[in-house]
Amino acid sequence: MFDWECLRHWLKGIHRNEEHREGMPAYDSLMMLKAILLGQWHSLSDPELERCLRTRLDFMLFTGFGLDGKVPDETTLCRFRNQLFKQGRAEKIFSHINRQLSKQRLQIEKAKGAIIDATIIESAARPERMLVEHVRLIVKKTQKKIAIKW
């Protein structure tokens, strides 16, 4: 449906150690791009994106991160995004992604929520009243995040 591999040529050489093979091996640049896109689409900060890459199965499946336990930290994600813009690659890549989506009559809208699979159980350590208050607080925070627009 969507040809991600065609973006690799725009990402080639974005990591300093690609040519010299010095230091730790770089994360796959296409996986990093997909992570950056998810962060943008879901309006996530870098720490939130890192957490989602470690905990959300949909993020893991889309990017390929987390399945083997290796996930870039927030600083690595920030540096990668900054390099995309600093090297003038971001606009070309995003334009190409939008063209591909338009050809298929698709468009991306910012995510307004996430599916959460949870069962609330009463515990002796946490009375039901406190648990209900905690859930209400989480819902309020989630609603505030949804109301904030980029």
Task: Give the secondary structure arrangement, pairings included.
Elements: H1 8-11, H2 17-20, H3 29-41, H4 46-55, H5 57-63, H6 74-86, H7 90-103, H8 128-147
Q: Could you provide a short overview of the structure?
A:
The chain has 150 residues and is mainly alpha-helical. It has helices at residues 8-11, 17-20, 29-41, 46-55, 57-63, 74-86, 90-103, 128-147.
Structural description of this entry:
The protein is built from 8 helices and no strands. By secondary structure, it is mainly alpha-helical. Helix 4 crosses helix 5 and helix 4 crosses helix 6 (74-86).
Rough outline: globular
Give the percentage of residues in beta strands.
under 5%
Distance between the termini: 28 Å
Give helix % range: 55-70%
How many beta-strand elements?
Answer: 0
Annotation field: number of helices: 8
- Computed Rg: 19 Å
> Mean pLDDT, as a whole number?
81
Q: What ranges have pLDDT less than 50 throughout 5 or more consecutive residues?
A: none
Question: Which structural class should the secondary elements be placed in?
Answer: mainly alpha
For the biggest sheet, the summary is:
none
Give the helices and strands as they follow along the chain.
HHHHHHHH
Number of domains: 2
What brief labels describe this structure?
8 helices, 150 residues, mainly alpha, single chain, globular, 2 domains
